[in-house]
Design brief:
- It comes from Glycocaulis albus.
- Keywords: Cell membrane, Membrane, Protein transport, Transmembrane, Transmembrane helix, Transport.
- This is Biopolymer transporter protein ExbD.
- Belongs to the ExbD/TolR family.
- The structure is a single chain.
- The protein has a domain of 68 residues: 2-Layer Sandwich (Nucleotidyltransferase, domain 5), CATH 3.30.420.270.
- Helix content is 30%, strand content 14%.
- It contains three helices and five strands; from the N terminus they run H-E-E-E-H-E-H-E.
- The chain has a five-stranded mixed beta sheet, with helices on one face.
Length: 137
């Protein structure tokens, strides 16, 4: 006699529901515990114009950064590391003067930020104005 083999259906179904539950629980956990940082940027908007003319205004110290990353302080060429010394020398004559940084569009941003940070660290009022004239050659 021949024996018949009972072949049971060998295909096993995997229940995906518990795995999906765990994935959704982990997703909710990571969304709830994530911290979103508020990064601070440099405000490039100029202040609104004043209706009254300033009295006894001090001269502005102009720091220009050209497209070749050359730095000028009141039309005198200097290096980015020596800007603070040049500004301090000029502020000795006019202590309340502010610094205006005028970078070219093609200048390295790192130089602008370095000068900005030096001025802010020393308590010198500073602002940035984009150079639209093409800079100095």
């Amino acid at each position: 006699m021949r024996r018949r083999k009972n072949r049971a259906n060998d295909s096993a179904d995997v229940n995906m529901t518990p795995m999906l539950d765990i994935v959704f629980i982990l997703l909710i956990f990571f969304i709830v515990t994530a911290t979103f940082l508020q990064e601070e940027g440099i405000d490039m908007r100029p202040p609104p114009p004043s209706e009254t003319p300033p009295e006894d205004s001090n001269p502005v110290i102009l720091v220009q950064i050209t497209d070749q990353n050359r730095v000028f302080v009141n039309q005198d060429q200097t290096s980015a590391d020596r800007v603070m010394a040049a500004v301090s020398r000029l502020r000795a004559e006019a202590p309340n003067s502010a610094v205006l940084i005028q970078p070219d569009d093609e200048a390295f941003h790192g130089i602008t930020v370095q000068i900005w940070d030096e001025m802010m660290a020393n308590g010198i009022p500073v602002s940035i104005n984009r150079d639209r004239s093409g800079g100095q050659s």
